[in-house]
Amino acid sequence: MEENNGNVVVDQAKSRWSDLWTKEDYLAIWLGFLVVALCLFAYLVLGPKAEFAQKIEEAKQIQATEEAKAPFKTIAWYNAEDASTFKASKSSGFGKFLSHWTKKPGSWKSSPMDSFIQTEEQAKAKNEKAMPAYEEAKAKAAAALEAATVAESAAAAAAFKNQTLNDTAKDTIAAWRSAKNKASKAKAKTTNKPYNYIITLVGLCIFLIIFFGFGMRMMGASVGGFAVGFIVVFLFSVLAYMLGGQATAKQYGVGAEAWAIVLGMILANTVGTPRWVLPACQVEFFIKTGLVLLGAEVLFSKIMAIGIPGIFVAWVVTPVVLVSTYIFGQKVIKMPSKTLNITISADMSVCGTSAAIATAAACRAKKEELTLSIGLSLVFTSIMMIVMPAIIKGVGMPEILGGAWMGGTIDSTGAVAAAGAFLGDKALHVAATIKMIQNVMIGVTAFCVALYWCTVVECVGENRRTVGAIEIWNRFPKFVLGFLAVSILFSYIDSQLGHKMSHALLDQGAIRGGTRLLRGWFFTLSFAAIGLSTNFRELSKYFKGGKPLILYACGQSLNLVLTLTMAYIMFYLVFPEITANI
Amino acid sequence: MESINQASLPNRIIRMIVILSGVLLFVYGLLPVVTSQVPILAQMHSYLDQNGIDPSRYYYTDVEQVAEGEHYLEIALDR
Prior knowledge:
B: about 75% helix
């Protein structure tokens, strides 16, 4: 029932009711929904909502009193803010349970075994080593608090009518906040505990075999065959996490995902992947289920995090660059594969790996195309995250402009944070927030690409014709609907809970303490499966003539110019008051 | 993968060991040396380590600094 149309394989089978429980797209949705429902129930129904609500209300009253008293945010205001910022994942049994059983091999510096096991002595030694830095940071925070208290008292003595005293108080309070934040981070390094992840990894592997095995059973595959092969895929994912946890490798953006592909490809293209492993290389099934879970992290309220300038930098420039790069690839470079063209364009313009995964799945790109896009992104990201802060510092560009520029152009969020931090705190805050707004765009991108593909791209060539609604429905990748449904559901709950409660129960609960933990594993499993089933020669065909590299470089150049121009116009010409407040 | 499969198993295993060793040597041997020798890279390494920033994480929910930045801007811009 499949029709090969040029380089695009179109599934023209008619929809049947049985698709709901036998097709991969739907099963990815149901499995994703199951995890989502469980997380929402655990945090929203069983979570400490009443306790949080009471404390948030108390803090609100204190903040309202302080706001009425002083024209700036006082020490008491900030203390109330801190007292009403909760993380449900840290205080609920479900959060602790899930976090424990989904643990990934951790970071290490000299011995890879440190990522699996940390003894009591090792933890104690780490804590003792970090203690002097914490003591120093704590003393600085205490001194900063004292200075802030004195400055605030002086401003209060003048009934908050003296602008100079008010400004001094505001600045010293900001310095105290910064010192307190540093002390808090230093303290975290003194609380290392012993761990042994080997048992939890075995438990997780069994759970995932049951979880995905159920889907495989529904699709009519052998669960036994899947389970045996899955152990190897899981093992490669674990090794990838271990190798990606090394401190220096991480600095260059070489994380677990890259290692999963590399390790898999090395085995597949030398010794060869054993045949019995291949039934478990369910790349699309893992990716689609992961993407449904990723929908929970696509919250539309995040778009307004930095106001209108953020929308223009992240939501106006990005689609312009995406579409321009795609057209450039088709008309000028003449990319042979449209799916590779759109995957690289989305990867480069939206947000790197996550956008590449979503777009590739939406347009049914080949796994080699996804691998190539991610590889290009990793190389450019590791260069840009080092070069951009150096250039920005070298030319004396303002921190906020530099932050916005990097946030809109560097692909991966972690690399954006690294580059931003290198420039300064404000650059970090702006860069990371711009990137977050851009991250939210992957939902819209995946939907538009899926729609464009099944209404336009798959109709060109010999079979050029108008397609009806039913055929669009038949062709449409259904998991995208699951992804959007979860995104809309979480965005709706987010808007109903109120900001503080949503932060506590949704952001720091159902998402960071729930769906995200499994989503990370699902994507790494899919990358390991990609590597294990990728032929290097097939991959090199897509790179012929260096067209993907030219496309990425040209698209990124346009992105750099447009983002910088838009950031300057928005942050310095149209909304300078927002920049001044940051 | 025809040509790969045509080679004998010992040859394929040797090839795998050589490639894997090369990759590991590059990442865990060469990169740390380059990082320690180039001042800007060494500075960046130390800064990232101190602040717990992981550049290999790709989505905003995986990066703690995003939540901090969002919270900072929320207060600074009164949102």
